[in-house]
Amino acid sequence: MNDWTDRAATLADELIAAGKLHYPEWVAAVRAIPRHELVPVFYEQDPVTGDWLTRDATDPAWHDRIYSNRALFTKIGEATGSWGRAVVGLSSTSTPGLMTRMLEALDVHDGHDVLEIGTGTGYNAALLAHRLGDTHVFSVDIDGDLVELARHRLGGIGYRPIVVAADGARGLPEHAPYHRVIATCSVSAIPRAWLEQTRIGGLILADVKLSVHAGNLVLLRRHADRVEGRFDRNWAGFMSLRREVARAASPVDAGEPVARDRHEAVLRTTDVDTLRPWDNLVAWFLAQLTVPTEIGYRHTLDEQTGRPADVLLTTADGSWCEISDRTDDGFREVREAGPTPLWRAVENAHQLWQQLGQPGWDRFGLTATTDRQWVWLDAPDSDHTWPLDPPPTL
Ligand SMILES: C[S@@+](CC[C@H](N)C(=O)[O-])C[C@H]1O[C@@H](n2cnc3c(N)ncnc32)[C@H](O)[C@@H]1O
After folding, report:
1. What is the predicted pLDDT for the residue at 64?
2. Total number of domains constituting the chain
3. Is residue 198 included in any domain, yes or no?
4. So what's the pLDDT on residue 245?
5. Is residue 349 part of a domain?
6. Does residue 257 surpass a pLDDT of 70?
7. pLDDT at 343 (0 to 100)
8. Which of 109, 165, 330, 363 could bond to 147 as cystine, CB 3.0-4.6 Å?
9. Which residue out of 94, 240, 250, 319 is catalytically annotated?
10. Full DSSP string of 197-265
11. Taking the complete model, does pTM exceed 0.70, yes or no?
């Protein structure tokens, strides 16, 4: 691709115009990194057949895609879930706009050492290495093949940050402490290692997600005894830190679907019309905060429109609920069974969200010590706090 510098410059302009890129150091980095060298191939799923299609960056038809503000799947592979065994995206490169937004929020300065969790293609590591220099950038990915490729491709374009195949939940103790830790995969709580490996005064930027869509980016400052900070005003999402998926016994991520005996279910109606997590992400987060285990979410597809229809929520304790997409005078049918009344939790969360004055993400924050973690509204010691129980693996 011989005109990549023009394309990278256009991408930078696009991100500036979209309000996702402001500072000259990061503008220079976006202009300088040949993204196609780090993403020589990407994958797209055919919306009709579901088949995965391979796109080759050397094909001029895909040049624009590589230098656009889009996330691209960069590794696919077989995985087992409620859908059975299927090919799914295993790694992706996030939208450049999300990366620049996060890098700017990270407030890095010359001489800072930064640990990135989730190397993927190495694009983010390249931006960091351009800004700070190779010796200040450390990046880990659990996928050894990706690490090899990223290291090789980064070297090919003149960058040599430290890239290591390791479980990011453990951080990278051999090069700690860091001024900044940035995670480009999501966690259900802040791993203790990140807290311990961040310098006092340093920052951690991570995507905390308790289940699919239930959480957001949070920027935490390290104090002597804790890390603390607020969620980002705008929602964003990453794929889960991989060992956490194995932990989750919900139909969204792993394991067998919960067996449902419809005769067992209580049948009732609901007037909550925000059925899907993304209809009200904050209320969905509140619902998940009050349910002790991860809520799995699935929906059927409307045969005519192809849009999401009936919703199914499940938890590992065997609880489930089905909510009908069809309304009758504004009410929908709910079938609910098992020890955890899941739709009741969603209804209560919507009610609470209204009572609290419809708070946006940035009224919520998180505090993590080595012993406990909690989400709060407005202040760490407010009347509204919710415990976060880190899984034993973190
Ligand atoms: C969204 S991608 C990262 C994108 C990357 N920053 C880039 O610039 O292309 C998420 C990455 O997290 C990695 N990952 C998943 N679980 C991990 C873990 N436990 N430790 C480290 N990396 C992990 C995945 O292999 C995947 O490459």
Report:
1. 86
2. 1
3. no
4. 46
5. yes
6. no
7. 95
8. 165
9. 94
10. HEEEEEEEEEEEESSTT-EEEEEEEE-SS-EEEEE-SS----PBPHHHHHH--STTTSSPPPP--GGGS
11. yes
